Amino acid sequence: MNVENLSFAYGEHGVLHDVSFSVDYGEFLSVLGPNGVGKSTLFRCMLGLLTPSSGAAYVDGRRVAEMSARELAYAIAYIPQSHSPVFNYSVYDMVLMGTTAQTGGFASPGKRQRSLTNKALRRLGIEHLADRGYGSISGGERQLVLIARAIAQEAKILVMDEPSANLDYGNRMRVMQTVQGLTRDGYAVIQSTHDPDQAYLYSDKILALQGGRVAAFGTPKETVSSALISALYGVDVEVCSMRGDEIRVCIPADSH
Mean pLDDT in the chain? Predict the structure, then answer.
């Protein structure tokens, strides 16, 4: 997926300014930045929900704004933060909903859709939850269900809104390792996050946004620095390298 010189404004208020980046199949991209920097607006433009003021997002060379809703559903799956639904659908039905674009408006899911659902549940290791109510399982399990739903959709680009937010440490690690594993199977994964440590550990590329503009774009080693993190979040931090620079950890600069 490519985003080229994309800008967006709500009326006179500019939110995104000349944003460009790319992510290939098999890569994990983290979009890093504080609240209100334009991450959600960027995702809406990428998903075809908003029309950029200038520039464009492209999938396999096709302009997102020119693709139909069905074509977009085959190309991109959106995975929101884990949430509690109004209706306590079963886990199986939640994943089955990911196949909606493959059937007619009033058609029932067929054998193929149910096969995709079963495969997605097995792939995420949550087939034992199939008959459980989505609202009665843990936050980490709900996030895995949403990822399984995206896999059943058969889209190869996954756009994730802070997938590990509000999860405990164990569930956060399980979800992120699962998502990282999908890139090895050819998925392109794009996540928004507030966590530079996590972005460094799991990502192939990092896009840092500041004031709606690209502050940095490149590999984790090229982008994650004390200067960048301090500028993004308005705090004085020191980025420390560990395990041969396999991990970088942000700590307050005055904590020594």
Answer: 91
